[in-house]
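Deliverable D5.2: sample structural annotation.
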Amino acid sequence: MRNNSSTTSRRNVLLVAWVATLLTSSLGIILWRELGGTEPYWWSWINAIMLVTIFSLTLTCASLKPLRSFVLILLILFFFGFGGGWQFGVIPFVRSSTLWISWENQLPWSLSAIATHLLRLSPALVILSFLLLKGRKRQDFFLAKGKIDAPVEPSRLLGMKKPEPWVRIGTIFAGVFASVTFVYLMLSTTPSMDAFIQALPLIPAALLIAVINAFNEEFTLRAAPISELLSAVGKKQALLITTAFFGLGHFYGVPAGLLGVLLSSFLGWFLGKSMLETKGFFWAWLIHFLPDAFIFSFFAIFSVIGE
């Protein structure tokens, strides 16, 4: 009887974790836009109310207590703007204000882009502060180098039948992801040599933005949520939940649609796997940073072309 009750409790925790994640994700926006053309203005408030309700349940229902910190992280993401496709929250509100737009338009691309990504860093800083105040150590939420030569657990998805060191697999995938991104960008729009030369002074700013963005997304969307999910739902489900959230957030990315979701989901799964197996941030950040370095460097070149 006790085993049945425990199994039911675990299933309820898992169900609530998935529901809270999907409410925070871009799933609602995707369905509204693809089926109805546009999302109603009240949609975000309905999701916000439901998320607050779920968080309240984690405060009052003993069986859901293990999800309390995870749902709080989702609330921070949603109300700052990371959830729901950047349509609702503090950051979209600030960026749409007359004062911000006026100030941003007076800045060169490099300063404007850095300011935007520092603003987007704010939820990461709030979540980091929360975890530290909670008594967590950096290693508890993977904010450490980790064991970069730890073995990669065999996976059919990777075509691996025996363990191999992360130094080898991580290096290969870092090169593959960076190369594919570069080729895709070159095939999409090939900048002229003059534009490239003019943009050279902006490359350090582009690399700084890539550093910030890779840290921001890997910590906020992966390291912190996974660390708070592990004890509640286990390693496998923690990885699946964060993978789904990351993938849905790229439906309107590049490439867009189902292909974008599948590709970003695989990347999210792989980076989450690296954190869990190395107990650190190194490979996830590096593999994310390298493609971003090319992407933001191209943005810098396009800013020169557009002037």
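Annotation notes: The chain has one domain: 2-306. Residues 78 and 180 are 31 Å apart (CA to CA).
The annotation will be released with the project's public dataset once the embargo ends.
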